[in-house]
Design goal:
The complex is a heterodimer.
Chain A (H helix, E strand, L loop, with lengths): L2 H20 L3 H8 L6 E4 L11 H14 L4 E2 L27 H5 L7 E10 L2 E10 L5 H4 E10 L2 H18 L10 E6 L6 E6 L6 E2 L7 E6 L5 E6 L6 E6 L5 E2 L9 E6 L5 E6 L6 E6 L6 E2 L7 E6 L6 E6 L5 E6 L6 E2 L7 E6 L5 E6 L9 E6 L5 E3 L7 E6 L5 E6 L6 E6 L6 E2 L6 E7 L2
Helix pairs in contact in A: 3-6
Chain B lengths: L2 H18 L33 E8 L2 E3 L4 E8 L3 E4 L4 E3 L2 E6 L5 E8 L5 E10 L17 H8 L3 E2 L9 H20 L5 E6 L6 H21 L7 E7 L10 H7 L1 E6 L2
Parallel strand pairs in B: 2-8, 10-11
Antiparallel strand pairs in B: 1-3, 3-6, 4-5, 4-7, 7-8, 9-12, 10-12
Helix pairs in contact in B: 2-3
Classes of the chains: A alpha+beta, B alpha+beta.
């Protein structure tokens, strides 16, 4: 190695260290905020033909779905022209700011990059929605249309809300947003019934229902990739063991617990066919893998350190994260054959709860970041560069972040109001919403259904 | 050695008869404690050099006891070079007594060896099991129930943060616990005791589950090294799910970082 190369290496190492110390990195910032290229949407009020009372539900659902996606900047309606197009035929190449030309929406004061418009009608007893999405920049309206779709629903609020969800999901998918939150559910642990049981709710916090009635302590759930099975750790049989329940029938699905004082923290592989978990079968808690029914278990790791929370990479199923010692708990990675163990977090403080982003490139996790023990906050890290950003800031303990199927929302547990409750937020830490209020609610995970 | 087995059969039959009859008799009062073994035994030289050893007495009193009660084995041998009793009693003086708490009906065989060959005799103690609804036995364990003994006699062992090392104060506590456990298991031979591992609220719940398991097994390993049978101790980690206090103070954290005892089934 020449002296010159030595110096450049040293510089690179110094740069990497100072980058880590600053908690900054433009790539991870871009990933988190996507502010630079955020489309600016103008979303007009849809009108029904005749008096349709469900239009209020339709318009508010469409608007909030688009806003909640975190993908867009929604332009204020006070800036809109007085008139707006309802059909593509209404659009003209040029106008004098009456609202029927795309240029009226592209320019001040609206400054929208895209226009969301359309109309609804009651046809043969069903609600029909004609929804469009146009770019505002092209001068030719024919070249501007990105989406033109008919949606149908029942002639009531429920039908209008469903049509609005589908329309919003189609708009979001035009901007690269994948994995709609529509129909997704959040599973969590609540003690509101008197014991820690597994519960489920819709992703917006509605329809909270109890899945287990074990009257024991059941914690640390993991949801299968298809949302059909919830695996968790329970004291129902004395020592901590793994149990799996069908999310629809609420019935227990067989899982063989090997002989050990503890089998805990299960996690599914991306194909849903295997379970990785932590077991004390050979002494200290270590990572094991088994078929989804618990059979054919095998030890993955042979380190003399407490190892829990195996999380298999969704895009590269031969790579996993886990939480382990020695020393204070940190996040590590290794192959699913137990080789190539490498620490991912920087060794400071205590790190836990790694959760893969659907892209397999980023993880959310909780970390004390070297400050007082137990004061966890939610962070997001790029696994390649190890750059990270902090999403919560000193409001109680913030733990167990997991990603929504859209890859833009996170659910997590926080003690910011006293007892632990479940919250969602966008990946940049904005739009924090509290979903639970009754009892102590912990360990949220987000399933596709 | 068919003898002991054969002699057992009629005794067993008798025991079953007694059992079937309802066993309403009061348990016999145990005899007074045995006198200390004779300080001096007949010198070997006084025995006939080529004579055969004589077992003039080998008995057990009472010949029938309820499970958990003691019986006295008594023997007198002359002219033997050594005297051995089976069932783990081993070599004994030529004359002596031994207090026994047999778990089941047992036939003891005494063997008196001499130059002319061994002489043997047997004695059987029948152990009856009280019927389930038999009169309560408040006197069985005058020192209370298993639960109350575990609660009052066994002290928690405490740990440092994120550690399962047995520190000096924990070592002292566990040494005292080992002595107390021996007494508890003597009074409750069928009992097992659970060793719970607990953690303070810092660290993640998942990691603490693993840490609690390590604390419980460290304490178990120490107790086993002090002579407690491993199969009498069952470990269970509660992580930080069952704190004994919930304040965010080091005092409270220390109370929660512990190995705690609970009565088994």
């Amino acid at each position: 190695m020449t002296p010159k190369r030595k110096i450049s290496l040293l510089l690179a190492v110094t740069a990497a260290l100072s980058g880590a110390a600053l908690l900054l990195g433009q790539d991870i910032r871009d990933f988190i905020t996507k502010n630079a290229g955020k489309p600016a949407l103008a979303v007009v009020e849809f009108r029904g033909s005749g008096s349709q009372p469900q239009m209020a539900a339709f318009n508010s659902t469409l608007f909030s779905d688009l806003e909640n996606s975190g993908l867009f900047e929604l332009r204020p309606r006070s800036s809109y022209p007085l008139d707006n197009p309802q059909r593509p035929e209404d659009l003209r190449p040029a106008d004098n700011n009456q609202g029927f030309a795309l240029a009226d929406w592209a320019g001040a004061p609206v400054n929208a990059s895209h226009l969301v418009f359309g109309y609804t009608a009651a046809q043969n007893g069903v609600l029909a929605v004609y929804g469009y999405l146009d770019e505002t920049r092209p001068s030719n309206p024919q070249a501007a249309q990105l989406l033109g779709q008919r949606y149908v629903g029942t002639l009531d609020d429920a039908g209008a809300i469903r049509a609005a969800h589908q329309y919003a999901a189609d708009i979001i998918s035009k901007f690269g947003g994948s994995g709609s939150l529509l129909g997704s559910r959040i599973y969590f642990v609540s003690d509101r019934s008197g014991s820690s049981e597994i519960w489920a709710m819709d992703w917006d916090g509605t329809n909270q229902t109890q899945l287990t009635t074990l009257k024991s302590t059941s914690i640390m759930p993991a949801i299968s990739p298809d949302g059909s099975r919830i695996a968790f750790t329970t004291f129902a049989k004395g020592t901590p063991g793994i149990m799996i329940v069908d999310t629809e029938t609420k019935r227990v699905v067989p899982f063989y617990n090997q002989q050990a004082s503890m089998n805990a923290t299960p996690g599914f592989t991306p194909d849903g066919k295997q379970i990785f978990y932590s077991s004390t079968a050979s002494g200290t808690a270590q990572i094991y893998a088994a078929q989804v029914n618990g059979q054919d278990f095998r030890r993955i790791s042979h380190r003399e350190a407490i190892e829990v929370e195996p999380k298999i990479n969704p895009k590269n199923p031969s790579m996993m994260l886990f939480v382990a010692g020695p020393g204070h708990q940190q996040i590590y990675q290794m192959s699913t054959e137990g080789i190539g163990v490498e620490r991912v977090t920087n060794g400071e403080g205590e790190a836990s709860n790694p959760a893969w982003h659907p892209d397999g490139q980023h993880l959310a996790f909780s970390w004390t970041s070297g400050i007082a023990k137990g004061d966890f906050n939610v962070f997001v890290m790029d696994i390649g560069s190890r750059q990270y950003v902090q999403l919560t800031h000193g409001e109680g303990r913030n733990e167990n972040p997991t990603w929504g199927p859209d890859g833009r929302h996170l659910v997590f547990a926080s003690t910011r109001t006293g007892k632990s409750q479940i919250y969602t937020m966008l990946a940049d830490g904005s739009q924090v919403k509290q979903l639970t209020t009754q009892g102590v609610n912990r360990f949220p995970v987000w399933g596709v259904k | 050695m068919n003898m002991p087995t054969r002699s057992l059969l009629p005794t067993l039959g008798l025991a079953m008869l007694l059992f079937a009859a309802g066993c309403s008799k009061k348990a016999p009062i145990p005899p007074p404690p045995p006198a200390p073994a004779p300080a001096s035994q007949a010198p070997a030289s006084s025995a006939p050099a080529a004579g055969r050893a004589t077992i003039s007495e080998f008995s057990v009193e009472p010949s029938s006891v309820e499970r958990g009660q003691s019986a006295i084995l008594r023997w007198t041998v002359t002219g033997a070079t050594d005297v051995v009793i089976d069932h783990g009693i081993g070599t004994v003086p030529a004359t002596g007594t031994r207090s026994l708490v047999p778990a089941e009906t047992t036939t003891y065989t005494i063997t008196a060896n001499s130059a002319a060959g061994p002489a043997t005799r047997t004695a059987t103690v029948t152990v009856t099991t009280p019927q389930p609804p038999a009169q309560p036995r408040p006197a069985a364990n005058p020192r209370g129930t298993l639960e109350s003994r575990v609660l009052s006699d066994l002290k928690d062992a405490y740990f440092d943060y994120d550690s399962n090392n047995i520190r000096d104060d924990a070592r002292a506590a566990l040494q005292a616990d080992a002595d107390a456990l021996k007494k508890i298991f003597a009074d409750f031979p069928a009992a097992t005791v659970a060793l719970e591992g607990h953690c303070d609220e810092r660290g993640s719940a998942e990691y603490n589950l693993g840490l609690g398991d390590r604390r419980a097994s460290s304490a178990r390993d120490f107790l086993v090294s002090q002579g407690i049978p491993a199969d009498k101790l069952k470990t269970i980690s509660y992580g930080k799910e069952r704190p004994t206090c919930t304040d965010a103070t080091e005092d409270c954290y220390q109370k929660n970082r512990r190995a705690h005892f609970a009565a088994g089934q």
